[in-house]
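Annotated sample (chain length 201).
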Amino acid sequence: MTTIGYIRVSSNKQTLEHQRFEITNFATKEGLKIDSWIEEKISSRKSLDKRKLGELLNNLQENDILITCEISRLGRSLLEVMKILETCLNKNCQVWTIKENYRLGNDIQSKVLAFAFGLAAEIERNLISQRTKSSLANIRATGKKLGRPFNAETKKLKLAKNQRQIQSLLKKGVSKSKIAKIFGVQRATLRKFIYRVSVRA
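Output written by the structure step:
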């Protein structure tokens, strides 16, 4: 059995030492000795495979104990935290948190709590989906077009600011290939631009 202290801060402005102090004191009170530390200064927005925590989860052994100051140190969203807890429970490892006083392991109480987390995660996922659909519907209702904006700011569609010149060249019979070369874009890009302008007109 290995006891691991996990510490994460999202920026260099935050200190790792405070979390290390809390975990050390907690472990001493529980009669445990921290065998190894995982420390990282990284945002929880980063995917698990880019974090030390991801490697830790892969290397966990049965009966290991993972201690962290609070459950939010593990992940940014409830869905991600659930994924991490599921990995630990499937490996018969325990996850202890100081702030929430969780003792998640392979016992009925932990399974009930994990079920509650899972249910909350499913509700969160559904709420996010509903909010996204509602937001998109509201945007469409205002008449705005979704997707990449079609204007001169768009790198690929720099043709927008030269729309009149392009139309003039087309009227003069200049080929699309030549016009594309003049403006330094692919012929397909020009063709899409002409099509979208004609649709908007």
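Annotation: The first strand starts at residue 3 and ends at 9.
Annotation: The two ends are 71 Å apart (CA to CA).
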